[in-house]
Amino acid sequence: xxxxxxxxxxxxxxxxxxxxxxxxxxxxxxxxxxxxxxxxxxxxxxxxxxxxxxxxxxxxxxxxxxxxxxxxxxxxxxx
Length: 79
Known about the structure:
Blueprint: E1 2-6, H1 14-22, E2 29-34, E3 41-48, H2 52-62, E4 66-67, E5 70-71, E6 73-76
Antiparallel strand pairs: 1-3, 1-6, 2-3, 4-5
């Protein structure tokens, strides 16, 4: 299941984001979206987890969780 993660603190790295979701299961991919010009985070990314149950647990536990100075927003990514 692919998840959209919004409102990520701009100082959060892709490795840190991936580690948050690994606490709930296997992470297939983790992509933090960066600005092409500055290379800095745009504040959102995508996490893909092969198990729907693990993805739902991550979504439930991480949605509205404060990381850095921001509250994450986690939902199923629309295709």
